[in-house]
Design a protein that fits this description.
Length: 430
Amino acid sequence: MAEPIRIGVVGMGTVGSGVVRVLEQSASHIERQAGRPIVVEHAVVRDLGKSRSVAVAPERLGTDVVAVSDNPAISVAAMLVGGLEPARTMTIDLLRKGKDVVTANKALLAEHGPELFEVAREAGRSIAFEAAVAGGIPIVAAIAECLAANRIESIRGILNGTSNFILTRMEEDGSNYADVLAIAQAEGYAEADPTMDVDGTDATQKLALLAHLAFGVWVPWKQIPRVGLETIDQELLKFADELGYRVRVVADASRADVTLAMRVGPTLVRKGTPLAETRGAFNAVSVVGDAVGPMFFHGLGAGEMPTASAVVADIIDTVVGRAAITFRTTGVLAAENPAPVSGGGSSPYLLRLQVTDQPGVLAELTGVLGREGISIASVIQHQPAGGSATVPLVIMTHSCGAAAIERAVTAVDRQASVQATTTCLPVLDD
Ligand code: NAP
Ligand code: HSE
């Protein structure tokens, strides 16, 4: 029997526990795939007293990453601690001490990717990060390897399982936002700080990584226009439903002249389309390549086992040498010059305004939109509830540019008849 490969698992939370579980449950299958057994030599956690869903022998469990980085028997480290520090320092330590690294930490890569990849190159090591984007969906390998023949034109997807879980539960059974977020946390979908999920940060960081692989440029994630779930409520979901749409947090990147048009935020997607039918913690990514045409990927984007599936595949790739080849040939995260980023492209938009219910208001508001060259496709206004003087007014526009609608919404919100900040969502019909 071939000598086992000994690995370190740094972080034994949702993902780390899943990795140990998969390595144990599927040991003989993984041995065939890797050509030798893969065993966990040491695991690192923060709190030794915490109860774990998988058992690690006490002599193999510690709180110091040095027990992995200084152990000459260990050649691969699964870095499954979230956040920026100490994850960054730990990763650098592991690489400099000769470990190949597999990670699921997209925040770390989106923030410090170029530095970490440079450290890996200098140390002659690799970093594999399939699990960092879209959980179990093999989208990193698809773009970096399988679609290498293509000039990628666009990437569009649902990249955050937690926010998709929240939206679909709110839309399907009228659940309350806070209650569903608590379920997503209990299921292990959410980040340690769930603000990252619901304010669009997590999806934006994933989009930045995909854009790098697809377009070969480094996009600082903070430059990507981002909107969170905070504007979404039951009233808006009901209007969307009435118009034949669902609301999904869509991450979009496409080539536009010399810039990349990128945005992340709640979007109306037509019922029956693949994005609208992506529910719960599922993610979806559609990629358009010049040779292959449109492709669609769908699968669980968060949670213990789907994410462990991607991490363990990366560990196998590292053991057999595939990760090193991909790392070298794709030159991942080597680009130094940031790509110029513009906002989203042209589309129809839905505006939800809260206005005083009196004569002349509609004419005044359509006049404001008209001055920006925005044409109206349809309007919905229902009877105000309980004789309220304020009423929601929903306007669906024809296709217009992102800059024009932004100016128009600013102008609309200055009108005396408008009683609250207007919600503005792009609309996708395909
Ligand atoms: P988690 O459940 O919070 O687990 C984090 C683990 O790191 C815990 O075991 C924790 O130890 C350990 N840890 C934290 N700080 C440490 C320190 N200073 N020293 C040693 N250990 C430390 O997080 P997770 O959900 O598994 O996520 C891990 C990474 O995977 C994150 O980057 C996340 O974004 C990414 N990811 C998560 C998912 C998912 O569905 N959860 C999917 C894809 C990617 P204790 O257990 O002792 O607290
Ligand atoms: N918190 C992330 C999500 C985990 O909900 O999608 C997967 O990256």
